[in-house]
Amino acid sequence: MKITFEELDRFLQEQFPQGAAYGTLRKLGDGWAEMSLDVDDGHLRPGGTVSGPVMMGLADVTLYAALLSRIGLVPLAVTTNLNINFLRKPAAHTPIWARATMLKVGRTMGVGEVFVYSEGGEEPVAHSTMTYSIPPKKHEN
Amino acid sequence: MKITFEELDRFLQEQFPQGAAYGTLRKLGDGWAEMSLDVDDGHLRPGGTVSGPVMMGLADVTLYAALLSRIGLVPLAVTTNLNINFLRKPAAHTPIWARATMLKVGRTMGVGEVFVYSEGGEEPVAHSTMTYSIPPKKHEN
Amino acid sequence: MKITFEELDRFLQEQFPQGAAYGTLRKLGDGWAEMSLDVDDGHLRPGGTVSGPVMMGLADVTLYAALLSRIGLVPLAVTTNLNINFLRKPAAHTPIWARATMLKVGRTMGVGEVFVYSEGGEEPVAHSTMTYSIPPKKHEN
Amino acid sequence: MKITFEELDRFLQEQFPQGAAYGTLRKLGDGWAEMSLDVDDGHLRPGGTVSGPVMMGLADVTLYAALLSRIGLVPLAVTTNLNINFLRKPAAHTPIWARATMLKVGRTMGVGEVFVYSEGGEEPVAHSTMTYSIPPKKHEN
């Protein structure tokens, strides 16, 4: 791994000054990451379940964490494509968590997939694939 | 159209009690809608531009509005698939807006596409396609 | 499982009278399937590698097989959404194979993912997610 | 435009030696293209309609043509992501055609959308978005 858990945790908190609005890092490995999100009233849609954009936000940042485990702390890696299937209604008033795994990390882009779960549930509530664009290194020569 | 601008505007405000966090209805037609979003600090990512999840949230609710113009005020229509391509960096500290158009509205699902723009910009910053699942009508017999 | 390997194999050959143009069933389980495809000159693009549409075709039919393991021999199940990421160049002049797994099988639709490999390779050459629409059963009452 | 209709037409025929298996160029503009495909028995699925992979193949090559109108005759541009929604059943035993439009052409990638129609039909049978990776120019300095 190019970075430690502590380095990435600190980096994410600096990058997202809104605090834990997008999730909290729980585990980190070589090419994968897990993050969780406490659900508050601002995340809900009618019926008390987590809204789609909240799940997309967690999936997005979790794959970002998985990517950085491979390429190091690159702030300007950006999502270029995201596809998500919403599979089941999340449990009401329950935190969600995500596990992201890289499928490929190339020189200019990384592709990965993310499963999102309600805490305590066995079946995924959403599944997402994403492409991140990796900026060229400066002074690369 | 199955609903008026005023009916949908009131419905969206009731459905999303967080207020205008997901956008404000601007125009509504038969099978299409336009919504805008004032950008505040909670929406930003490093560099002062709008984050991906914020654009996804606006795209999602704008297509929901376009769908409801065809099927009426159905609260339980839910997104089942969303695909988004991020095309250009949004302008910093500038509101964004979206135009959604239905490509098909069937009995059980609706598919549409959304273009997202920075206010004043000519080229789209993102393009999304989505599928909404339409719940069966009660007492349908 | 709702069907046996032999029942599905015979059904696929009847459904696709072009023969093995879309692939050959290799393994079948509860909610998953594996199929392979011998590559001939009609499948190639410049450089001798398998073309994108050929990989999409194999992914599509393999997920169809995985779905039928759960719902039985339903001829009119159709793909409504397909997303595919091409990850690596397939090996030249080498057969490809795919493994499909259902993520959800509901009453009206099924969602699954597919990994595509070059025979003998360890890393996937493509990854796809798909939604199939399941027709309502006749005389369902 | 970087190329003429005749140059692209000849290039496509050389690139795809299977002949018109993937479609015939009909119109070409700056950042857009139209191609059509005569449907034969090998393209059909049960019911006499065009199969999904055939529509994906036509969408893919038509967007390739649209991209080349902007970047010139680059043989090694490859699809990295394709998303397609199948909207309506194509007419039986009827040719299909596609119109592709680029949404963005950058230095390293191009994104576009494609509508697919049955000949004579007014509503699209499929809608696709795609990302093409553009190889770096040789000797670019």
Q: Would you kindly provide a brief summary of this structure?
A:
The structure is a homotetramer of 141-residue chains. Chain A has one domain (5-133): Hotdog Thioesterase (Thiol Ester Dehydrase, Chain A, Roll). The first copy, chain A, is 22% helix and 38% strand.
Folded structure, characterized:
- The structure is a homotetramer of 141-residue chains.
- In chain A, a hairpin with a 7-residue loop joins strand 7 (109-118) and strand 8 (126-133).
- The first copy, chain A, is an alpha+beta fold and 141 residues long.
- In chain A, the strands form 2 sheets. Chain A has a 6-stranded antiparallel sheet. A two-stranded antiparallel sheet of chain A has the order 3-4.
- Chain A has helices spanning 5-15, 52-71; strands at 24-29, 32-37, 44-45, 49-50, 78-86, 96-105, 109-118, 126-133.
- The radius of gyration of chain A is 15 Å and the shape is globular.
- The interface between A and B is medium-sized, with 26 and 26 residues.
